[in-house]
Amino acid sequence: MRSDELIEGVLAGDRRAVARAISAVEDGTDELEALSAGVYANTGSADTIGLTGAPGVGKSTLATELVTLGRERDLRMAVLAVDPTSPYTGGALLGDRVRMQEHATDPGVFIRSMATRGHLGGMALAAPEAVRILDAAGYDRIVVETVGVGQAEVDVAAATDTAVVVLAPGMGDAVQMAKAGILEVADVFVVNKSDRDGAGEVVRELRQMLHLGVARDWDPPVLTTAATEPEGIDDLWEAIEAHRTHLEATGALLVRRRARLLREVESLAAARFRVAVAERLTNEPRLADDLEARRLDPYRAASILGKP
Amino acid sequence: MRSDELIEGVLAGDRRAVARAISAVEDGTDELEALSAGVYANTGSADTIGLTGAPGVGKSTLATELVTLGRERDLRMAVLAVDPTSPYTGGALLGDRVRMQEHATDPGVFIRSMATRGHLGGMALAAPEAVRILDAAGYDRIVVETVGVGQAEVDVAAATDTAVVVLAPGMGDAVQMAKAGILEVADVFVVNKSDRDGAGEVVRELRQMLHLGVARDWDPPVLTTAATEPEGIDDLWEAIEAHRTHLEATGALLVRRRARLLREVESLAAARFRVAVAERLTNEPRLADDLEARRLDPYRAASILGKP
């Protein structure tokens, strides 16, 4: 498939084209640039929702339930499951989501896991690009599910309109998540598996930590769900919609998206610059030799390399 | 203290100067550039040892024991405990290392925890800089201890001559560590708390995973220690020395250090370029406006910003 055909296919919402385009993002192929440019004008209408939390808290089940609720409202739904730490998709990430099968034949639903095999900027840049492809393909809500709670996952979550942080009793503690900086990016908290022992304590601990933070104009709600029942999912849907309404009403949506876009372009420019610098160090071994022989220190070398 | 006085102090091995210099690295202050340039010519004689593993496996106790062994051999020993995920030092990282107190009054030992408050390149760049300061100050062995097993910790571990990966029964599994890419960077494995249940299983699991990997010219040994006894620490010391001898004999030490240095300079140049790009986006709002209005796509914008 040629780039222009691929772009056309994505804009027409053709599933095969969308799948190929996301593979191109994963691989960081040469056609990515044309593809990205070709779909960009048609983006911006989807709402993006991040689902972050430790493995085992039930993110996939929550994502499936959100898809069900979205379909009831006649919205086209996409789920992008990303693993920032692995170059391989699949495995545990999508293996256990039997419930997602119920949406497999629905043309209004697109579910896909994603890794970064060759993308220059890692998942922090690949995920927003894949989201734009889904956006351009006409999906109204895009749920971005991450696999853990490390820095890479926080970066991916922070690149969505509404970041939902999921906890569950006995699955990693709030302190650990606070350390990863996840409390700062969360717009909605969910304590899932609320029928289990210790759920009330997780809610209390979380509320306590939130009280310690600075007051913001949006107070992240702490909800409880039992995704397998399902119970509390309607409240979660409402909370996400309320946050989105809040973002629009205050003008924060545009501010947030603009800031996100600029950070992304900065990262992309820096990643490309890095490649150029590496090439130059290869082509001009004298610079590398001087560094190695300690005639030239790293800062001075970086300054020299900063000049074209 | 002026920059030249600080450099002089570091080169003379003055502890106060060394402490201030490392604080300058943490803060990313302006004097860092002069400091880094000033000490660089005097680096390269220290051996660096990484200690990585999940919280609770006993890295601090192992570090303390290595310091004791080094002192018995009349070597000047430094320990740098880094937490890549936090801008704050101290806390759990150094709080529980009562045993380290035994070295507190020894002028041949320097122990310090470190965070990155303002350093441009994060811990991946700050840690090697702090190590060079300790190197220039005359420490013969520098143990770099990290706090967890995420990508940032792996990056820091990979920036040492000998990366020791520590595991313990019941403390995170080998699969998780494999995912973080830690098996690839490890030169020596230690299963600590070997007197506990399940230690044998951890060793077996680890050996199995290592057998799956590609054969390398250095076969990472799997040792067992009971650091609180202490037991097996002599073997650990010998394994580290053997690895170092192997690196020297094969010429891999120079190759590794050169590659590390070049990657560091690339990162530094890219981080500086990123700051320049961000400034330009602020000073030329038309570019940002075009991006936001989707008249200009991220790749095209990155290309424009790539030109000075």
CATH fold call of the largest domain in chain A? Rossmann fold
Task: Evaluate the radius of gyration of chain A.
Answer: 21 Å
Look at the structure and give the CATH class of the largest domain in chain A: Alpha Beta
3D shape of chain A: globular
Beta-strand share of residues of chain A = 5-15%
The run of helices and strands of chain A is: HHHEHEHEHEHEHHEHEHHHH
How does this structure look, described?
The structure is a homodimer of 308-residue chains. With 308 residues, chain A is an alpha/beta fold. Helix content of chain A is 53%, strand content 12%. Chain A folds into two domains: 208 residues, Rossmann fold (3-Layer(aba) Sandwich); 44 residues. In chain A, strands 3-2-4-1-5-6-7 form a seven-stranded parallel beta sheet, with helices on both faces. In chain A, α1 crosses α2, α1 packs parallel to α3 and α4 crosses α11. The longest helix of chain A has 32 residues. About 2% of the residues of chain A have low confidence. At the A-B interface, α3, α12, α13 and α14 of A face α3, α12, α13 and α14 of B.
